[in-house]
Amino acid sequence: LRMVSSSPVGNEPVSDEELRPHVLDGFIGQPLLKAQLQLFLDAARKRDVPPDHILLAGPPGLGKTTLAMIVANELGVPIRVTSGPAIQHAGDLASILSSLEAGEVLFIDEIHRLPRAAEELLYIAMEDFRVDVMVGKGPGASSIPLTLPRFTVIGATTREGMLPSPLRARFGFTAHLDFYPHDELEKLITRSAAVLGLPLDDGSAAQLARRSRGTPRIANRLLRRVRDWAVVHELDTVEPDDVVEALALYQIDTEGLDRLDIAVLNAIVTNFNGGPVGVNNLAAMVGEESETVETVCEPYLVREGFMVRTPRGRVATRKAWDHLGLTPPDGAGA
Ligand code: ADP
User: Fold this and answer.
1) Residue owning the nearest CA to atom 13 of ligand 1
2) Region Small ATPAse domain (RuvB-S): what ranges (predicted)?
3) Which of 143, 171, 179, 267 could bridge across to 285 with cysteines, CB 3.0–4.6 Å?
4) Of the listed 64, 168, 224, 227, which one is catalytic?
5) pLDDT of residue 12
6) Residue among 301, 281, 305, 283 nearest 292 (CA)
7) Residue of 109, 228, 242, 261 marked active site
8) Among 152, 157, 158, 295, the one annotated catalytic
9) Do 151 and 106 touch, CB atoms closer than 8 A?
10) Sorting pLDDT into bands at 50, 70 and 90, what band is 329?
């Protein structure tokens, strides 16, 4: 076994990069999405034009940035990376757009957080490949229309519903990423372990997959904690019990729920008697933004059957009470 040096817990600035697959074939799971994207890319290559704009929607850590980089790599074109919050004025976006090369991919993360004026500039650029550059200030200011080469925007969002429809309509293809089933996460963990040079015994990947909250980024993060364990204990191979012990140390929930998930369930159950409770009240109770609770926490809790959304608010299910080791009073919960 080649022992890899361990890095300090939670301090891995380049961690997402070393485990990112570079070709579509290396992207694990999401078979329908991959088939759609493959066809989309093949057609663009055959027609020898940049593909239509692509929107990637889904919770954080499911592979949106990775897919954008794969698309650029498969097309053999450069990629420019920015994000909604990084663009403060329409002018910031205008200068990025006017410097794009033909065929380049422009990746805009958190595209739902672009300022309104930038949004308008963007959808004109996406549709007509043109941008109006303002010259001068005040009454003497004038705008000069600039023609852009054809390029491809890849937008990523955790809140597709917050995109205004004119902008959403400019995307030729929208892909929805969903949480990964355990068998796909196992494959991903096995691949990442190979990249890290960490031999995993049968069953270890399954233990990790169960605790990964359906999310590749979390799977890779937990795998690194297990690697730390293996380095310190000088293990040749990692057995399932090692995974259980290593992750218990970090208080990783057996169902993959994280601190915020548990706080949310606890709040519904203990502060609101199982619900229903509105998302704003819930967010205030756990000290988070409503958007975080809605986009990061709820999709997973709902999918795993810990919570249901009703017209009157969020309700904890029997499974949530059980998981917290509590008994629902008669008539409480769903
Ligand atoms: P997002 O942009 O959706 O927040 P990323 O693309 O940054 O997520 O992915 C987070 C991490 O998970 C990266 O290290 C990436 O390599 C890995 N990852 C995500 N999806 C996959 C996948 N389908 N196959 C392999 N690795 C993946």
Assistant:
1) 16
2) 181-251
3) 267
4) 64
5) 45
6) 283
7) 109
8) 158
9) yes
10) confident
Compute the distance from residue 263 Cα to the ligand 1 centre, in Å. 26
Residue nearest to atom 14 of ligand 1 (CA): 16
Burial zone of 319 (CB within 10 Å; 0-12 exposed, 13-18 middle, 19+ buried): middle
64-75 helix and 31-47 helix, angle to the nearest 10 degrees: 30
- Looking at 58-62, 317-321, 325-329, which range is the least confident one? 325-329
| pLDDT over threshold 60, residue 220 | yes
Look at residue 116 and tell me whether its pLDDT is greater than 50.
Answer: yes
- Residues 6+ positions from 309 with CB-CB distance below 8 Å: 298, 302, 315
150 is catalytic: no
Reply yes or no on whether 217 is catalytic. yes
2 among known catalytic residues: no
Which residues have any ligand 1 atom within 6 Å of their CB? 16, 19-21, 27-29, 60-66, 156, 188, 216-217, 220
% the chain with pLDDT above 70: 94
Give yes or no: 64 in active site: yes
Picking from 95, 97, 300, the residue whose alpha carbon sits closest to that of residue 214 is 300
Residues 227 and 243: their CA atoms lie apart, in Å, by 9
Q: Does residue 2 have a known ligand-binding role?
A: no
CB 175 within 8 A of CB 67: yes
